[in-house]
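note to self — DONT lose this again. spent like an hour looking for the file last time. sequence + predicted structure for the chain T wanted, 288 res
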Amino acid sequence: MKSMTGYGYKEKSDERMSLSVELKSYNNRFLEIFVNLPPYLSPLEPRLREYVSSRCERGKVELSLRAKELSAAVSVSIDEGTAVAYLAAIRKLSAALGLDEPVRLSTILSLDGVLQAEKSRDPERYWSAVEPVLADAFGQFESARVREGAATEKDILAHLATLRGCVEEVSLHAPEMEAAIKDNIRVRFREVLGDAVDEARVLTETAVLLVKYSVSEELSRLRSHLVEFESETGRNSAPGKKLDFLCQEINREVNTIGSKSPVLEVSRAVIRMKDALENIREQLRNVE
């Protein structure tokens, strides 16, 4: 079990480049990835997204990449057409003003657009520098998620044990619930018919109500859901969605038991189950 909350940071510098990678994540129903990087590294964005999406299943993940080139191959080109146009314009102006001065090369070169410098932007070269830094940052990020996830799992399993204890408590009171139903029927018949109570009719009505108000099926389904819940936490590295669904099913059975119970102890056990279940659901909001 992993938390959806994590943080990782790594920086590295060499003679060519200074790099830093920061990863942050928060809880979210689905996977959302936000990438912040310099414009000239934008060709790497698809790879960065794929790197994160292949390792995270849910959560809002923010990846920030900062880079500063310390040395890079630069190619310089001359725009001869622009230089010739500048020269012609300068000579024309000199003639118009009656000046006779030589046009220096340094003057032409200093004019805008004559010299054009361009750095070599090779995505593969950048990726080879970024990937190891990203891997180290993600290692820290993943360790934080696993560490917090282990603490969350421990807390969830403690509440799950509370649920199990309450299920067994309700099971112990099931015969008491049936006896209360029988007594209630007999009291109502006596209120209407007095002592002329038809025992067969009482038994028939009791059987009908026991079918309607018995909680044996709910208890059976609850036990099954709790077993499945614990198994899912052990076998699935990202069980959040499945566990949330199981919580809904458990809540449905608990509510049904509460609505059927005329026994005070069962009602109290239902309240404890709802409290434990609410705590579990609160924790699951941050489970991947």
